[in-house]
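User: I've been going back and forth on whether these two constructs are worth ordering. Before I decide, could you fold them both?

Assistant: Sure. I'll take them in the order you sent them. The first construct and its C-alpha cells:
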Amino acid sequence: MKFVSRHFDIYFPDAALDLGGIPPATGWLTFTYVAWTIALSIVRTRYIKEALSNDMDPRLVIVPFVQMVPNRVFYNPLSLVFSNLVDIEPWKFLLNFFNLLIGGSFIERFWQSPRELAKFVLILGTITNLIVVLITIILSMFSSAIRLDLPLDGNYTILVGFPIIYKQLFPETTIFETKNLPFISKNFRFKLLPIFTLLVLSFVQLLWFHHFSQLLSIWITFFTCYFYLRFYQRLPASMAEDAEFEVVGDASETFQLIYFFPDLVKPVLEPIFDYLYQKFIVDWRIATPFRVYDIEQANILAQKRGAKPVEGSEAEERRKKLALQVLEERLLDNKNTESSTPQNDV
C-alpha cells in the first residue's frame, strides 16, 4: 500500500496491514491495554481534581497496583507486570495502541506463536521494569533529585522493542520517501526505525519531561529486547532453513548491534561491542556463542526477508573460515568411511 503526496511517498507493508482475524495474543493484549488505561485515566481524573483543589502535586495521584512507583514496588510487586499494560500519556497511548494492534498482529503471525508475543511484551517488559526500579533506587542514594515517590512509565517494550523486530523482519522496506525538497532526498527504511525511535524518545525526555529514570528505561528496554531477540528467542523449526534445527536467536550479520547505529559512531562503538561479546558471551557464557554454521543459516533467512548481505574484510574472513570448516568435516567423513570399508587380502 502506498500514499503519494507532493513531497512524501508513504509505504505500508501489505502483510502488516492484514487485520483479518486478529491473532489471540494481540487481541488479548490490546483489549487489556485499552481497558486498563481507560480505567486508570478515569480514576486519576477524579482524584486529580481533588489534589489540585488541595494544592497537591497531581503527579502523586497514583494507583500503585498498576503503576510502577519505586518506593512501593516491594509492597506491590505485580505493578512490575501490570504497568506494561497501562499508559497515562495520550500520545503514547495512541502510538502503542496502533503499534500493538497492527504490528502485533503481523509479528504474531510471523512468529507462529501467541505465547512468544505475550512473553516478549510481558516478561521482557517486567525484567526491564525491575532493572530500572533497582537502578533508580540505587541512584537515589547519591542524588536527591531522583524521587522514589513518583511513578515510572513501565511500558516501553511495544514502543521501543517492536521497531527492533520490524528491522529484523523487513530491514530494506521503505517507510517513506522524501522528494522535491531542497537538500533532502531520502528513503527512510525500517532498518533506521530503532535508532530513530531511541533518539526521538531520548530528546523528548531530556528537553521536555526531564525524567532521568524514564530515559534509563528507554535504553534498557532497547538492549533487553535486542539481547533476547539476538541470543535467546526460540521459534518453530518450520521457520529454519534446515528443518532439523529450531531457530534460536538471530545470528545474522545484519542483525549485529553495531548496525543499529549511524556510521559516524561505528568506529567508536565497534571495539566496545566486540569486547562485550567476547567477555559476556564467549568468556562468561551468559548466552551460547554463535557457530559459523549458525551465522550462515541466519544470513540465508535474513536475505529471504530482504536484508542485504554484509560486505567487507570481516565477511570474507568468515566465509573462508566456513569453507575450511566444511572441507575439514568432509575430509574427516571420507577418512572414517575408508577406515570402515573392509579390505580383501590377496
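The second construct, handled the same way:
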Amino acid sequence: MVNSFNGSKKDMQRELNSMASAESVDPYWGRPVEGLDEQPLSLRETMADETDTRNDEVIPDMKLGQLFKHHLKDWLVIVLLIILDVVLNIIHPFNRYVGSMNIDSVRFPHKKNTVPVWSVPIYAVLLPILIFIGYFFKRRDVRDLHHAILGILTAALITAVLTDSIKDGVGRPRPDFFWRCFPDGFENYDMITREVICSGDPAVIREGYKSFPSGHTSWSFAGLGYLSFYLAGKLVIFDRRGFTWRLSLVVLPLLAAALVAVSRVDDYWHHWQDVTAGGLLGFFVAYFCYKQHFPDFSDEKAGYPYPYIPLVSVPLASHASQHGSQHPIHNTRPRVNGGSYDLENGRM
C-alpha cells in the first residue's frame, strides 16, 4: 500500500477502491463498505471536481432520540437558562436616582404596550419553530430540525438572560416613570436628597426601572434574526445568481423586529438608546448561535447542519496495522470511543 496520494486521480481512485474492498466495515461510518461513495466525506472530497454540487454529501440517518442524547448537556443548559431568567425577573432592579432636577426627562405619558409582552415568545420563538417544522415535513431532515430548534432556543434564552441582567444592574428609569411614580400627578420628594417618594403601584414602579436595554427588541432580533439567518442559508442568498426575491424574503423577519423596536419608543416605554442596544444584542447573539449549528451563508454547504455523526468503537491501530501504514485521514486525530467526529472540520 502506498503511504500518500501524490499520483494522478486515476491512481487515487484505484487505491481507494482497493482499500474499500479490503475492509468489511468503515471505521468512521460503522457500516459495510461497498465502494468509493461509502468513504468518509473528507476522503471523498479529495477526489471531487470543482463542478461537484453541495448535495453530494452522504450522511447516515440519525434518530431524534440520538440527537437529544448527544446534546443532553445542551438541553440541560436550556433548562438552566429558563430558571435563571425567571430569577432575574423576580429580583428588584437597581433604583437609579430620580429627583426633582431630572424628573422632566421621564415625564412622557404612560401608555399600554402596542406589542403585548405575552406575544413576544409567540412571534419571536414559536413562529420560527413552526417554520422549521414545516421545512422538516418537506425534507424529512431530523438533524436540521433539531439543530434549528436548539439554536433558536439558545439564542432567545441567552439574549433574555443578558438583557434582564443588564436591566437589573443599570436600573434606568423608563420615559414614562413620572406617571408610574405619581399616578395622581402630585409630586412628592425627599426634603434633603430631593429624590422621588413614589405613591404608585410598587410592581409598576419596579418595572419602571427596567428601561435599558429593551427586552421586546432584543427578543425580537434574537428570534426573528435567527429565522432570517436560517432562511438565508436555505435560500443560499450569496449564490452569485442575483435573485432579489430571496434577499427580500430574508429581510422580512428583520423588518418585523425593527417595527417592534420602533413601537417601544412610540409607546414611551423605552429611550432610543434602549432599543438600539437591545437590537444589537439580540442580532449578534442570534448570529453566533446560528453559526454554532450551520455554516456561513457563502459556504457551499450553506443551510445544511454541520455533518458530525456518533462514532463506532473501532480502534485506529487495528485498521492501520492491516495495511502497514496509516491513511492520511485516519491519523489526523486519536479516536475516542462513544465520542463524535466532526466531518466538516476533522476534529473530535
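Notes on the second construct follow. DSSP finds twelve helices and two strands in the chain. The radius of gyration is 27 Å.
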